[in-house]
Write a structure and sequence with these properties.
Blueprint: E1 9-12, H1 14-18, H2 27-38, E2 42-46, H3 51-58, E3 66-69, E4 74-76, E5 82-85, H4 90-97, E6 106-110, E7 115-117, H5 122-125, E8 135-137, E9 150-154, H6 158-172, E10 176-182, E11 185-190, H7 195-206, E12 213-217, H8 223-228, E13 231-234, H9 240-245, E14 250-251, H10 259-268
Parallel strand pairs: 1-2, 1-12, 2-3, 7-8, 12-13, 13-14
Antiparallel strand pairs: 3-4, 4-5, 6-7, 6-9, 9-11, 10-11
Helix pairs in contact: 2-10, 4-6
Length: about 280
């Protein structure tokens, strides 16, 4: 059994990665992360989720965790102190939404304490076991303040989102970059914001380098993070296109199989895995 050398930091995405298909952290995963903490590894969670939503999830690990949220637009310390914040200006968001948007597409503006949306989407609500970060129905035609942490669109038809992405970028390409966190989820952030940049801020604060970090992810909002760290691992449940985009990276077990925890146990903690 080969143990990874020089790894001091573990970075993980949440949905489709650290969380199982029921959007929860399993007891096994929790036990492995507690052992990581006991052995003095730095733990960073990097997610597209809003920080209020993500904080409730990472708290279940019961270990100190740095939180990079909204794809890098927020950084919080293990004590929940805000270390970095970046918001999109109102006129930038307004320009991005000034395109022809199919009324069946869910539109969300991530605000500091609420998410403003054009329609009720029960599938999105299901991602929160408890509503720590509440939706607010709004009419974007009458909204005055468009300032937001990020812009989010959701629809089951991926091609509709691709067409919308092209339209938004045609209006706002100088200000925004995009990522498909899932084929059904399209997100826009400021060009200066991504997970890798914010992870590097955390590591510099703690005296580590990206080369000393291992990262786990399953979405296209993880590409920079997976490429920047010393070792990047792609979840088995990730889209085939992500695996093709990063063919040099190893693919591990799925989130339903506790893929992150099992990899950490075997390759970082050097534990024998039970045969299932």
């Amino acid at each position: 059994m080969t143990k990874l050398k020089n790894i001091k930091v573990v970075v993980s995405d949440l949905d489709g990665t650290l969380l199982n298909p029921q959007h929860r952290i399993s007891d096994y995963t929790k036990s492995i992360f507690q052992e990581l903490h006991n052995q003095n590894y730095l733990i960073v969670v990097a997610t597209g989720r809003h920080h209020l939503d993500a904080m409730a999830i990472v708290a279940t690990l019961e270990v100190p965790v740095y939180l990079v949220s909204s794809n890098g637009a927020r950084i919080h310390s293990p004590e929940k102190e805000e270390l970095f914040a970046f918001d999109l200006k109102s006129d930038v968001v307004k320009a991005a939404l000034n395109v022809d948007i199919d009324p069946e597409i869910t539109v969300v503006l991530f605000k500091e304490n609420v998410w403003q949306t054009n329609r009720v989407n029960e599938k999105l609500n299901a991602f929160q076991a408890e509503l720590k970060y509440r939706p607010e129905l709004v009419d974007y035609k009458t909204l005055e303040d468009f300032g937001a942490i990020k812009i989010f669109f959701s629809h089951e038809n991926h091609e509709k989102l691709v067409a919308l992405k092209d339209a938004v970028l045609a209006n706002s390409s100088s200000d925004l970059h995009h990522a498909f966190s899932l084929p059904t989820c399209l997100e826009f952030m400021d060009k200066s914001v991504d997970k890798a940049v914010s992870i590097q801020r955390v590591l510099e604060k703690e005296g580590f380098s990206l080369e000393e970090a291992v990262s786990f992810g399953d979405g296209f909002n993880d590409v920079q993070m997976l490429s920047a760290t010393g070792k990047g691992l792609i979840m088995g449940n990730a889209p085939a296109l992500l695996k093709e985009t990063l063919p040099e990276l190893e693919v591990i077990k799925t989130n339903a199989e506790d893929g992150v925890a099992k990899y950490i146990a075997s390759k970082i903690l050097n534990k024998e895995l039970a045969v299932s």
